[in-house]
Design a protein that fits this description.
The chain has helices at about 10-20, 35-40, 55-60, 75-90, 125-140, 170-180, 220-225, 245-255, 265-275, 290-295, 310-325, 340-345, 355-365, 445-450, and strands at about 1-5, 25-30, 45-50, 70, 95-100, 120-125, 145-150, 155-160, 185-190, 195, 210-215, 235-240, 260-265, 280-285, 305, 330, 350, 370-375, 380-385, 410-415, 420, 435-440. By secondary structure, it is of the alpha/beta class. The strands form four sheets. The chain has a six-stranded parallel beta sheet with strand order 3-2-1-4-5-6, sandwiched between helices. A six-stranded parallel beta sheet has the order 14-13-12-15-16-17, with helices on both faces. The protein is globular, with a radius of gyration of 23 Å.
């Protein structure tokens, strides 16, 4: 597949790296010479220096032969114009754009991004994606990773095992025998930085980061069994009143009777968001101010979420909040190098907006009847939600005979409104929704399994 990536920032670089690693023909455009040089030297991609909103630059990048254009520059307007030129002048089939300004995303202008106006096939809103990820992780504090599939009926969950976890040093097949009515499938685990597919004979050890797929209704019980059954927070402090902080507060207001406090440094912005929130108390001041944190009730807070535009402030404010009595802290961190630092200083969870955005874009890059994608451990594996077609090699035979690639494991099957955990005897029917794990080297095999072939028609 030939792909043009507009923008060589963190997201653009991440997408280019992922696509190049899968042997796609990738060209990256950016106006910053140093970024074009870096992406060309470090990745197997072609770099073009220039403004991707200029037709001649897109033509130089190969837009006439491109299958997809992904516009993720810092300017929304540049992203939109690049897509419009790609459509009208070069007939690029699929166009993806990152749009940050929420004014463009107002429901009143829902038809703005259409063939008749600005022809963009997929709009990515990082702030909304990140806000949803934060809210979902707050619903299950014991997990470090949460992603829902099949309209929320199936969840993929990541948990780090502690010394006292009951399933440590127990073969996975025995875990299934001990809890036969528990609808979960452990599909992978990360040990020492290496992602591995889970097998029935594997024994998990303390420190392993495991990933399981489960019926939504069984997630809480699964976390209880693993010793991570923390209840959802009722007293929450949000530090940072940008779009992410505002969306998180609005989302939490809808979920129940929580006591929410939001701290924003800029007085004008604090007044603005106070008018948009119904049950959140907005405080104007510095999130690093211990006195202000105490005024917000940090000693009783079960969760503090820090989402300013500075990674350093987010890490430091999280540490201060925990020292002042907060039970848990979650920080928004853009620079992946700060992830290990945040864990080392006691921050419970961190959100990487780049990883969240890349997962959303991958959903539209993957070929075949794929409905959802979530990237694990910086691309070491993917959780994929796909529909089995009549022409799929998985259909109409027991899974033990399906010859799945070694790095692929099916975690759940959704059929006729019911979620089931597969066994070797499970027979996949055409139309089933499957949630599966694929190690990075097997993603292409998964795309082949769910491709739409001519026989389908």
């Amino acid at each position: 597949m030939r792909v043009i990536v507009c923008g060589a920032g963190r997201v653009g670089y991440g997408i280019a790296r992922r696509l190049a690693r899968e042997n796609n023909d990738v060209t990256v455009i950016d106006q910053r010479k140093e970024l074009v040089r870096e992406v060309s030297e470090r990745l197997d991609v072609r770099g073009v220096l220039g403004n991707c909103a200029f037709p001649e630059i897109l033509e130089e990048a190969g837009a006439r032969e491109a299958d997809m254009l992904i516009a993720v520059t810092q300017q929304d307007e540049v992203n939109m114009i690049a897509c419009e030129i790609a459509e009208h002048m070069f007939k690029v089939p699929t166009k993806v754009a990152r749009v940050r300004a929420q004014e463009y995303l107002d429901q009143r202008y829902a038809d703005l991004f259409s063939r008749d106006h600005i022809p963009i096939d997929v709009i990515i809103s990082p702030e909304r994606e990140v806000s949803e990820a934060i809210i979902q992780r707050m619903s299950t504090p014991g997990a470090f990773e949460i992603k829902s599939f099949v309209d929320g009926k199936v969840w993929a969950v990541g948990v780090k095992l502690r010394e006292d976890c009951p399933i440590v040093n127990t073969p996975l097949r025995q875990v299934a025998e001990l809890f036969p009515d528990l609808k979960i499938t452990i599909v992978a685990f990360n040990r020492g930085g290496q992602m591995r597919r889970a097998h029935a004979f594997d024994q998990l050890t303390p420190g392993d980061e495991i990933y399981f797929v489960a019926n939504r209704n069984d997630v809480t019980r699964a976390l209880e069994i693993m010793g991570e059954a923390e209840r959802q927070a009722r007293r929450i402090i949000i530090v940072g009143g940008g779009n992410v902080g505002l969306y998180v507060a609005q989302g939490l207001e809808k979920t129940g009777s929580m006591k929410i406090r939001l701290i924003e440094a800029d007085r004008e912005r604090a007044e603005e968001i106070a008018e948009q929130l119904e049950r959140t108390v907005v405080l104007q001041g510095d999130g690093l101010d211990r006195n202000l944190l105490r005024e917000a009730g940090v000693v009783d807070a079960e969760s503090v979420v820090v989402v300013t535009d500075s990674d350093q402030v987010n890490i430091l404010a999280s540490v201060v909040a925990k020292r002042e009595g907060a039970r848990r802290a979650m920080a928004l961190i853009n620079d992946p190098d700060y992830g290990p630092v945040s864990e080392a200083v006691g921050i419970d969870r961190h959100i990487d907006p780049r990883a969240t955005t890349i997962s959303t874009i991958l959903q539209h890059i993957r070929r075949g009847r794929i409905k959802g994608v979530y990237s694990l451990a910086d691309g070491a594996a993917e959780i994929i939600d796909a529909i089995a077609l009549e022409t799929s090699p998985l259909v109409n035979l027991p899974l033990r005979d399906a010859e799945l690639p070694e790095g692929v494991m099916i975690g759940a099957v959704y059929r006729d409104g019911q979620v089931s955990m597969p066994t070797g005897d499970t027979v996949i029917n055409a139309g089933d929704r499957l949630v599966l794990m694929a190690l990075k080297d097997c993603v292409k095999d998964v795309e082949q399994m769910f491709r739409v072939s001519l026989e389908y028609f």
